[in-house]
Design goal:
single chain; 191 residues; mainly alpha; NnrU family protein; transmembrane; membrane; NnrU_dom; transmembrane helix
């Protein structure tokens, strides 16, 4: 459980630098350059993500369960996750109408992903994992409201179409077995 927590809070911590310590980011970029910053950012993200994922099964083996999940919540999750994946992809692409409408679709996607997983995982380890991501996404969104506004580029429906295609492909990959392989749980509710 210790490595899981180090991975979780380290991963969220490195993803919080721009939101909560922008001066640190600016100073590091000034010293080492933007490409070096991106390389370090990716390296630290991976260094924390690996123990998060690798220790999750062990943390789950000793978790506390709070009850049995109603099947209806599993169906709600099955609807939320494809939407979350599309929004996460849309937030990573150049500006489309999804981004114009939601402002920060990647954060909305993280919120939906976390909420959906909280609906279907009624155990302490999952509450810590998905609850942390949900709180992180809310706090980052609040911090973004304090940044100076920049003039956005005009949206293009092309990027929305690409987001839907990639999000749909990711959903298909998870449904076809990747989720079971990676996490040991089928993403489609049975019953």
């Amino acid at each position: 459980m210790v490595m899981f927590l180090i991975g979780l809070f380290g991963f969220l911590g490195i993803h919080s630098v721009r939101a909560f310590a922008p001066g640190v980011r600016i100073r590091v970029i000034a010293k080492i350059g933007e490409m070096s910053w991106k390389g370090l950012y990716a390296l630290f993200s991976l260094a924390f993500f690996v123990p998060l994922v690798m220790d999750y099964p062990q943390a789950q083996s000793s978790t506390i369960y709070f009850g049995t999940v109603p099947t209806a919540l599993k169906h709600i999750n099955a609807v939320l996750i494809p939407i979350a994946l599309i929004l996460a992809v849309a937030g990573s692409l150049p500006r489309g109408f999804i981004q114009k409408t939601l402002k920060h679709p990647q954060l909305v996607g993280v919120k939906l992903w976390a909420l959906g997983h909280l609906l279907v995982n009624w155990d302490l380890t999952s509450f810590i994992l998905f609850g942390s991501f949900l709180v992180w996404a809310v706090l980052v969104r609040i911090s973004i409201k304090k940044r100076p506004l920049t003039e956005p580029k005009p949206p293009s429906a092309l990027w929305d179409a690409i987001a839907v295609i990639i999000g749909g492909l990711l959903t298909g990959i998870f449904v076809m077995g990747a989720h079971v392989y990676m996490f040991g749980v089928a993403p489609i509710p049975i019953g």
